Amino acid sequence: QVQLVQSGGGSVQPGESLRLSCVASESISGAYALAWYRQIPGKHREIVARILDGGSPDYASPVKGRFAISRDNPKNAIYLQMNNLKVEDTAVYYCNMDWPGNLVFWGDGTQVTVSS
Questions:
Q1: 61 burial type by CB count under 10 A (0-12 exposed, 13-18 middle, 19+ buried)
Q2: What pLDDT score does 65 carry?
């Protein structure tokens, strides 16, 4: 069982930045899709950013130009750099990794709160 350990969440003011980390218990070199999702109370989980094996990152429209997803295979980690945070970014953020064979793993989520 692959475990994904998240960190980097917190409470910030609008305009500030955070970087979320997601470290896997095993090598991520075989993962073909890595992504970050977020969920707010009463809403469905939505994708925020995604990077496919051999592809360029994709971002949901609300975060384009502000968020950046990256992958570091030697560290078994993915990151989400979040700049110029807005109140509407407040959510629980989850990392996601997909492997061949319909293997899907999720982190436990980390809270990001943006408020004045």
A1: exposed
A2: 98
Residues of the chain predicted below pLDDT 70: none
Q: Are 11 and 113 in contact (CB under 8 A)?
A: yes
Q: Would you state the pLDDT for residue 89?
A: 97
3-state secondary structure 5-26: EEECCEEECCCCCEEEEEEECC
Cα 95 versus chain centre, distance: 4
Residue in the block written with tokens 């970050």: 36
Tokens linked to 9: 């969440």
- Which one, of 114, 4, 24, 3, lies nearest residue 67 by Cα? 114
